[in-house]
From TrEMBL:
Predominant subcellular localization, coarse grouping: cytoplasm
Species name: Fistulifera solaris
Record's subcellular location: Cytoplasm
Example of a GO MF term: sepiapterin reductase (NADP+) activity
Identification of the protein by name: Sepiapterin reductase
GO BP term (any one): tetrahydrobiopterin biosynthetic process
Keyword Flavoprotein recorded: no
Length: 262
């Protein structure tokens, strides 16, 4: 069995990535033994089911693919380990030959001057965007290698240009993305048998982008940038799948959507 896990799959880029993978699956003629399990993770169970329905509508009847929704709040650190262990226990009942983990879930955090951020806000933001995200990648690598002896494991951290370039008023978001990038780069060096990609999907036209546009404390120098025509999440997701399936990257590398177009 081959497994695809997508966090933050209830909307936006996460939903687009799940659908892009399905289109890629359907472009191949599967063998009789080849099965795929798609696991959609997010806190909004109802929205996950919408993604699940879109996938079912895209699947031809002869494809051996199952789609499961898992309503897990990845920002709730206190019970996250228990929830993930239960999830992995379900997957462990079958042999896994390939694992693709798309570490997409995240939040903007507060937009505005770094000096305005209070301690509690900073802690909850980093719990979700750094602690949870980095631990998930580490745990899935450990599970795939030690428990399942999986021959192929691919970890994708959804990054951003802000991980490598600072912008005023986006300090909290930048800090989370930068930390995730470096953690996954180190993971790639430690785990030679695991493929790790830091993928910056470009400035996407999503609900998150609308939040940025409406933020009263967004630095004025950035406002013109967000009034331009932005990247369609479906286009960026298709580019990611192309990069992965044709392995157009070095493990641990940061690849931007625009770099991939060149």
């Amino acid at each position: 069995m081959k497994v695809l896990i997508v966090t933050g799959a209830s909307r936006g880029l996460g939903r687009s990535i799940a659908l892009a993978f399905v289109k890629q699956f359907c472009s191949f003629t599967p063998t009789a033994q080849e099965t795929w399990k798609i696991c959609l993770l997010a806190r909004d169970q109802a929205a996950l089911q919408v993604t699940q329905q879109f996938i079912h509508e895209a699947l031809p009847s002869n494809q051996n693919i199952t789609v499961n929704c898992h309503g897990i709040d990845l920002g709730q650190i206190d019970d996250l380990s228990d929830r993930i262990e239960s999830f992995l226990a379900e997957l462990s009942s079958e042999s896994v030959s390939e694992l693709y983990f798309i570490n997409n879930a995240g939040s903007l955090g507060p937009i505005g001057p770094c000096r305005n951020t209070n301690l509690q806000t900073m802690q909850s933001n980093f719990d979700f965007n750094i602690t949870s995200a980095c631990w998930l990648s580490a745990r899935f690598v450990q599970w795939a290698n030690e428990t399942m002896n999986c021959p192929k494991t691919v970890i994708v951290n959804i990054s951003s240009l802000v991980a490598i370039q600072a912008f005023p008023s986006l300090g909290m978001y930048s800090a989370g993305k930068a930390a995730r990038d470096m953690f996954h780069a180190a993971l790639a060096q430690e785990e030679e048998d695991v493929l790790v990609l830091n993928y910056a999907p470009g400035p996407l036209e999503t609900d998150m982008t609308e939040q940025i546009r409406l933020a009263p404390l967004l630095d004025s120098s950035l406002r013109p940038h967000y009034q331009k025509q932005l990247v369609d999440p479906d286009d960026s997701a298709a580019k990611l799948v192309d990069i992965l399936f044709y392995q157009k990257f070095k493990s641990g590398q940061h690849v931007d959507y625009y770099d991939a177009l060149e």
